[in-house]
Amino acid sequence: MVGGSIIPPPRFAINANGHAPAKGEVVIVNSPVLGRAENIAYLYAIHTSGIESDVVEFSKQGGLVSQTVKTGDDLFGYYLSVGLPNRHRGTRYGTYTAQYIPGDGPVITRYGFIKPKTSVLDTRGVYTRTVWPAVPGGTRLASSPDNYIGVRWSPGCRSIQWCKGKQRNVNTGPRLQLTSTDDAGCYTIRRGKRGARGWFVQIKVIAAKVDIPKSRDFVLAVVGASALRCGDLPGGNPKCRGYLFCMGDLYGCKCASGWWGNNCDRPCPKGKWGVDCSQRCPDRQLDCDRFFGPDKN
Q1: Fold of 128-207
Q2: Which H or E run includes 193?
Q3: For 41-98, what is each residue's pLDDT tens digit?
Q4: Coarse DSSP helix, strand, coil percentages of the chain, rounded to the nearest 5 percent
Q5: CB atoms within 10 A of CB 165
Q6: 58 touches 71 (CB < 8 A)
Q7: Domain ranges for the chain
Q8: Is 243:236 a contact under the CB 8 Å cutoff?
Q9: In 208-286, beta strands by DSSP E
Q10: Which key words tag this protein in UniProt (predicted)?
Q11: The pTM is what?
Q12: Which of 32, 62, 94, 101 is least surrounded by CB atoms within 10 angstroms?
């Protein structure tokens, strides 16, 4: 509250020009990649549906370490400050879950991720992967070049281990091919015995019930750079550089429009635009705007 008036929270829009609000609950991660000596990251749990929750609870399931974390409340919704513990620094990494608990109605769950800064466990900016069946009600996945998860190959990949929940050694090597909706779940990729010291990353595979091309197009435009007002968040960048947006199942976690990479801080290469730089500019417009694409006014 400033001068007796309440500062409005950041707006979210269903298209790059910000014409209409998108309703829902979103977790925003500032600095989704942390080095061993870096001090702090923030996770914000922001309401965009107009529903007031009585409580937002953050918890962390690290795959290797499980703990409860403290929450705070400010003008931008509930937030979690992830500091640098004196011991067991690896406990900062993993999956964070935010539960929105309204006065009435169902509990809403959203999640976010924090990874270690390491070349061996480089997932190329992938935090979640959404897959869908070839036919409604089936288990075999529809054909897609994105039906895999993994890390960039390096000599250190010879010592990595894969877990899915409590299942160990579910894969060997840097890449796992996804073939069935049964492959959905949270995967932990860790560096052998060093995993207990924090050298691990997690990727959540989400199985949609049907192909959702329109919904996928929707999320590709859901974080327009001018609509989000990321600069309103403490330490925020006006163009949302360095922020990971997690919108729950089906949509997963993605960088804001115009950015990609593990830390959401790499500009789109020429010819790409949109969320995670996943949209291609038309062939004759290789210089289209990386935030808004070829339709920028």
Answers
A1: Immunoglobulin-like (2.60.40)
A2: none
A3: 888 887 765 555 566 788 887 666 667 777 777 656 678 888 777 677 788 889 999 8
A4: 10, 40, 50
A5: 12
A6: yes
A7: 128-207
A8: yes
A9: 243-246, 253-255, 259-260, 266-267, 272-273, 279-280
A10: Receptor
A11: 0.83
A12: 101
